[in-house]
Amino acid sequence: MNTRWRVVIIDDHAPSRAAVAHAVTLQGGQVVGNGSRPEDAPRLVASHQPDVAVIAVGLTDGDGIDAARLVASAFPCPVVLVTSHTEAGITARAAEAGVLAFLAKPLRSEELGPALDLAVSRFQDLHAARQENEALKRKLESRKLVDRAKGLLIRRFGLTEPEAYRRIQKTAMDTRKTMAEVARTLLVSEEWAVHTSD
Question: What is the pTM of this model?
């Protein structure tokens, strides 16, 4: 049978931790690690690489939201916060820390499944959007490099814009490099030539 999610639990209250673990198991998940202190969260997530981390807000040795922030910023893992407090301040801090879903105490196992599914789904959507953004940024940077290199070839050899583009494209194909790499090499060599002629 497939495991629904692999889960790390951080809660310093043993009965609460046991209740979350029991609910995870009932809902088809597997607890792969648990701890009681904020510093346990990044260590356990790094070593177990779970699908989701469930972290209690109030921890004796520190703040669960700070632990959630550490996990959300350093690892590819969604965080669900378990809390008996729902004031706006906690919710706002948790959202800013990257928490993707909440579970209220006392925990009801039938609420755990949808909360973990929601967190995992939101995380995947955010991750996909981030990757798309990065790809667009790289594409834009590549285009800027190629445009600058075209300008250089136009000035240096009196080429038209299409001719300059084709020359960069042909060099890229011949050398099995991207057009951006060829453009960068051209621009660096031009900079070097300018500096050495000064």
Answer: 0.67
**Domain carrying residue 86:** 6-107
How far is 64 from 94, CA to CA, in rounded Å? 9
How many Cβ atoms are within 10 Å of 102's Cβ, its own excluded? 19
Separation of alpha carbons 68 and 92, rounded Å: 13
Kindly state whether residues 38 and 85 are assigned to the same domain: yes
CB atoms within 10 A of CB 35: 20
CATH code of residue 149 = 1.10.10.10
Q: What is the pLDDT of residues 44-70, one digit of tens each?
A: 999 999 999 999 988 877 788 888 888
Handedness of CA 86, 87, 90, 92 (dihedral sign): positive
